[in-house]
Amino acid sequence: MTTYVYGIARRGHGRLPERMGGIGDPPCPVRTVEQGDLVALVSDAPQELRPKRRDLLAHQNVLAEAGAGGPVLPMRFGGVSPDDDAVRAVLAEHEKRYLERLEALDGKVEYNVKATHDEEAVLHQVLAENAELRAMSDANRKAGGGTYEQKLRLGERIAAAVQQREATDAVMVERALEDASEERSPGPQSTGWLANISFLVKREHTAEFLAAVDTLRERAPHLVLQVHGPLPPYSFTG
Amino acid sequence: MTVVPAQQGGSGGTSGLYDVLELVLDRGLVIDAFVRVSLVGIEILKIDIRVVVASVDTYLRFAEACNRLDLEAGPHRSPGLPDLVGEITESGARGKSKGALSGAAQTISDAFKEAREESEPEPRPRARRTASRRKEEQE
Fold this sequence. Notes:
The structure holds two protein chains of two kinds.
Chain A: E1 3-10, E2 31-35, E3 38-44, H1 53-67, E4 72-74, E5 79-81, H2 84-93, H3 95-105, E6 108-117, H4 119-129, H5 131-142, H6 148-178, E7 183-186, E8 195-202, H7 206-219, E9 223-231
Antiparallel strand pairs in A: 1-3, 1-4, 1-5, 2-3, 6-8, 6-9, 7-8
Helix pairs in contact in A: 4-5, 4-6, 5-6
Chain B: H1 17-26, E1 35-36, H2 56-68, H3 84-93, H4 101-119, H5 126-138
């Protein structure tokens, strides 16, 4: 029977969610594998593990539950060990590194922030800042929308201006929130966001961090900010 | 859908699966000695939702949007965006029956498209959708 690993904690963690339902259908009960000063949160692995919605949620829920009781190094979804002994071997081999990282993550959670432009608001800004674009837009409107060529010309210029704003706004988001956090990490590469950044935040400073997000929202109403957290510190496992 | 009950205690702790999927699948500790589950189909997550691409479609869309734009009104009016998270979460649940994440992810990205289109004042030109389809296939 192979072993699925959710995360790694210190042996003295004390509040690991043992017997909680993990991945699989029916859910495999969560248990621990101990080695030295470390403990791995594991369950049996279902015969055929695939990234199903149910299992992704189970992975996430086990880590959230464990993280509420103390620092946990979250594993990426889908890591399967041949057996419990192989888990012990890994814990023994990397004990120092894992303990150091757990120490660094103690009392901290991850917040992921994604930013997009509100299209109408950013177009407003771009036109407000650039008289030439405004004139082009006015001319088009007076001509009943303008010719295909005119629309293309205006659109291309506006797209360039918006793209420029995406870059400067990404920096603005990072700067606005970095002071309220301990560490930051760029999110996985994905398109659709002008910024996708994870921040490591001390639990006792979460209110300040969220206040910094609100301040940014007020200051930059052309940004649509999505904040997700508190999360297990996926982006800060070292 | 309630996710991660243990995360209560901080506002903003209502993340749905989609919102953190990329972190669960692309971040977190990896141990070389372990076998990793195949993530075939996940790249569909990289689909663009609202990205500025240098394309004729985008140029025309922006030009049209500027025509409609009322410069006299404040730039900060409520954008009237739909509750994206709610929409996604509801539709995402339908992906269950498909089993594999590729199914769920497809459903979720479809939900995004639906939500986006519902929020548009007028239907998006057909050409744009086919263009983005092609892009997905190439990726």
